[in-house]
Each structure stands twice: as C-alpha cells, then as structure tokens.
Amino acid sequence: MQSESNEPLLNTTLKAILVLSIALVIISLVLFKNLFFQSTFLLKKFGESSVEPEIAFKNNKPTFLEFYAEWCEVCKEMAPKISVLKEEYERDINFVFLNVDNQKWDNYIRKFEVNGIPQVNLFDKKGNLMSTFIGKQEEIKIRNSIDQLEREAESEEKILSAEFSVIKENNNNKVNPRTHG
C-alpha cells in the first residue's frame, strides 16, 4: 500500500519538472532571441538602413553594394562580418543592400548579373565597378578591397567562393521572385 501512495507524489514531481523545463526553454528563447536570430535581424536592419542606389551612385562616395536574401544561410553567416565593416566605414562609403526577393531591384540584379548570393560589388566614387565578391568571403579580403577603393585601383577584380546560394527563377509565380535553389 505504501507504493500506491508514492505514485501520485512521483507523478506530481515529474509534472513539475516537465513544466519547469518547458518554462526554462521558453524564457531562454525570449531572453536570448537576439543571439539566436541575430543574423536574420541584421539582414533586415541592413535593408531598412540602406542608402538608395540612385543616391549612392551620384553622391561622389565609394559604394558597397550587397545583394542578399533573408533565407540565404551564407548571407546570414556573413551578416555579422558585414555589420562590423559597415560600422567602421559608413561615414566614408555608401552601404547599399538589395534583397533579391524584392522585384523593385530586378533591374540591378540583371545589370550586375547576380547569379549567386551574397554578392558584394564595390564601386569607386565615380561609380566604376572595382571588385565583385560572390559567396562566402573572409572579412579581411573585403576590408582590403574597401581600403583599395580610396586608392582607386584601375582594374576590376572578381572573387568567387565555392559557398553561395544559387538564384533561379520560380516559374510557378508570374511575379517571378527569386528562390533558393
């Protein structure tokens, strides 16, 4: 008979442990949501704080132009690195971020032949394309190219990484958004 009286106590203890565990997980997600979702947040913030491309190409400053998508894992991975560069150089360089899923930027996507993302194009202050980076890049490589913008190098450089997201048209939709391939 003693074991029968211990069973409700054991069930109550297990339920309490389960409820506390679930509460702890929920509280952790709420408290650390920026840590878990920081890259996606950064990408959205980039898009919102972006200089309009028309302004960037006419204001006599070098321009950093990135094509990205919020679903792109490589874009998310690079977002903290790009954020560091943006904070350091944003007084001297235009930072333009164009989401490939936004049809508004389709003419720029075609003009700069965006086939994979992230794609970063660096322009001198006259609007001449100086460097193109496609895919995952080291921060130092992009930083060195940004530093060269001030020296206005003469040749265009194209650097392609093996890690990038392919863009292909979605034929299921007439509006033709970009999708992950």
Nutshell version of this structure?
The protein is α/β, with parallel strands linked by helices. It has helices at 2-31, 33-49, 53-56, 73-89, 106-111, 139-151, and strands spanning 63-68, 94-99, 116-117, 119-123, 129-134, 157-160, 165-169, 178-180. Residues 170-177 have low confidence and may be disordered.
Structural descriptors:
single chain; 181 residues; alpha/beta; Glutaredoxin; 2 domains; five-stranded mixed beta sheet; three-stranded antiparallel beta sheet; 6 helices; 8 strands; 20% strand
Which helices and strands, and how do they pair?
Layout: H1 2-31, H2 33-49, H3 53-56, E1 63-68, H4 73-89, E2 94-99, H5 106-111, E3 116-117, E4 119-123, E5 129-134, H6 139-151, E6 157-160, E7 165-169, E8 178-180
Parallel strand pairs: 1-2, 5-6
Antiparallel strand pairs: 1-4, 3-7, 4-5, 7-8
Describe this protein's structure:
- With 181 residues, the protein is α/β, with parallel strands linked by helices.
- The protein folds into 2 domains: 2-31; 35-180, Glutaredoxin (3-Layer(aba) Sandwich), CATH 3.40.30.10.
- It is 48% helix and 20% strand.
- The protein has helices at residues 2-31, 33-49, 53-56, 73-89, 106-111, 139-151; strands spanning 63-68, 94-99, 116-117, 119-123, 129-134, 157-160, 165-169, 178-180.
- The strands form 2 sheets. It has a 5-stranded mixed β-sheet.
- The radius of gyration is 23 Å and the shape is elongated.
- It starts with a helix and ends with a strand.
- Mean pLDDT is 79; it is low at 170-177.
